[in-house]
Every structure is written in C-alpha cells, then in structure tokens.
Amino acid sequence: MSAIKNILFSSLIGIGIAAVSSCLESLLLLAKGAGSLTMTVAEYTQMLAGIVLVGLGFGLPSIVYQNDKLAPAYQVLIHMGTGCLVMTLVSFWTGWIPVKAGFWPAFMTIAGEIAVAFIVWLIFYQQEKKLARKMNDRIKQLKK
C-alpha cells in the first residue's frame, strides 16, 4: 500500500473509532439518566470537528508503526503521546472536560479518556500480535 493510502486509511480508521466512541459515550450518558442531550448547531459542529480532530490525532501518527527502524516503545510513545495530547487539547476546546466542576471531575475525565484510548490501542495490539503469530506459524510450516 502506498504511503498516501496508508495515511488515508489510518486517518479514516481513527475518525471511525472516535465517532463510534462518541456515540457510545452519548448512549452511556443517556442510560445514566442524563435526560436529553441538547446543543446548538455551533456546539454540534464543534463536537463533530472535535471528533474528527481526535480521530486524526490518533490515526495519523499510527503510521509510525510502519517504520521498522524505530523501537516499538518509541512507536507507542509517538502514536499514543500525540493522540492523547490532541485528545486532551480538543477535550478542553469542546468542553468535554467538566472544568467548572472542579479539579477531580476534570482529572477523572482526562484519566478516563486516556484509559479508553489505551484500551482501544491494546485491542489493536492484540489483533496485530495474533496476526504476526499466524504469519510466523505459516512461514514455519512452509519451511518444513
């Protein structure tokens, strides 16, 4: 796959995961008894822009995993560090972090967002690890 296709694919995957996560969070808020979620067109547009930016913040840097010259720890640091930084900045910009509620609610929201990001990363990591294992097993079979 060409570099441009990889970047586009990674971006779309990131945006898709951000959009699904946002929908699930909205459903959880409603299930917890939030009543209704109402917002102006400007707030909705800002939220959608935030979702896209968070998706790009995680999707674009994920191409770092295609660089075999970087140690895996650096790849994770670059990818997740960039993604979490973008997500936190966007969360402040969109008002997803309840700053007015005080330090602990804001802190817990940030910690929760970062925890969810690492859970998603861990799911992808496990899938890639499983695929690598299958490929290695197949190569061993072919060598016999």
Show the helix and strand layout:
Layout: H1 3-31, H2 41-59, H3 72-94, H4 103-143
Structure report:
The protein has 144 residues and is an all-alpha fold. The chain contains four helices and no strands. The longest helix is centred in the C-terminal third of the chain and has 41 residues, at 103-143. The protein is elongated and about 65 Å long. The mean pLDDT is 92.
Tell me the radius of gyration.
18 Å
Count of DSSP strands: 0
How much beta, percentage-wise? under 5%
What low-confidence regions span 5 or more consecutive residues with pLDDT below 50? none
What is the SS-derived class? mainly alpha
Let me know the average pLDDT.
92
- Helical segment count: 4
Distance between the termini: 30 Å
Describe the biggest sheet? none
How do the helices and strands follow one another from N- to C-terminus? HHHH
Overall body shape? elongated
Helix content: over 70%
